[in-house]
């Protein structure tokens, strides 16, 4: 499955902890991320994360464009609800596109834990039939 990892600055420690805790599961999948989040996850684990631009520089939009083409199976986006983001429109657009394409999306660690356990259990098998490949 193709998974995107994204975290706002104050949630990056949560994302790193999550990646460490679920490294064995995540390692079985194709990982992508926004620039800084992807770098921090790679520094803390043995995972390989293909990185897009940093969120404020367009990374959310790059991932959103691929969601629009139904290329992602799961988006783990640890948002900071208490800090204004200069690129808030990009954040909202990405979340909206997940809803347009019915792509599973976690915006906090609690939901991410449920989804990653479901992923491991095989609950995402329907995505294999539904998604489109990267060209
Ligand atoms: O800003 C972000 C998501 O909106 C995350 O971007 P970085 O991972 O580059 O910090």
UniProtKB/TrEMBL annotation:
Q: Which residues form the active site?
A: 60 (proton donor/acceptor)
Q: Which reaction does it catalyse?
A: dihydroxyacetone phosphate = methylglyoxal + phosphate
EC number(s) recorded for this UniProt protein: 4.2.3.3
Example GO biological process term?
methylglyoxal biosynthetic process
Q: Which CDD domains match?
A: MGS (cd01422)
MGS-like domain: which residues? Answer: 1-135
Keyword Lyase belongs to the record: yes
> So where does substrate get bound?
8, 12, 34-37, 54-55, 87
User: The organism sits in which domain of life?
Assistant: Bacteria
Q: Which PROSITE patterns match?
A: METHYLGLYOXAL_SYNTH, MGS
Q: Which GO terms describe its cellular component?
A: cytosol
Pfam families associated with the record: MGS
Under the GO molecular function aspect, what terms does this record hold?
Answer: methylglyoxal synthase activity
**What is the documented function of this protein?**
Catalyzes the formation of methylglyoxal from dihydroxyacetone phosphate.
Q: PANTHER family annotated for this entry? A: METHYLGLYOXAL SYNTHASE (PTHR30492)
Q: Which family does it belong to?
A: Belongs to the methylglyoxal synthase family.
UniProt-listed HAMAP family: Methylglyoxal_synth
What is this protein's record name? Answer: Methylglyoxal synthase
**Gene behind this chain?**
mgsA
């Amino acid at each position: 499955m193709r998974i995107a990892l994204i975290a706002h600055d104050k949630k990056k420690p949560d994302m790193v902890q999550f990646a460490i805790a679920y490294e064995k599961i995540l390692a079985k999948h194709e990982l992508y991320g926004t620039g800084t989040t992807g770098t921090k996850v790679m520094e803390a684990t043995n995972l390989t994360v293909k990185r897009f631009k940093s969120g404020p520089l367009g990374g959310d939009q790059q991932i959103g464009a691929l969601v629009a083409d139904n290329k992602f199976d799961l988006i783990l986006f640890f948002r900071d609800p208490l800090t204004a983001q200069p690129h808030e429109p990009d954040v909202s657009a990405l979340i909206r596109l997940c809803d347009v394409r019915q792509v599973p999306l976690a915006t906090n660690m609690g939901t991410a834990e449920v989804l990653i356990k479901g992923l491991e259990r095989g609950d995402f098998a329907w995505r294999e039939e539904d998604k489109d490949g990267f060209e």
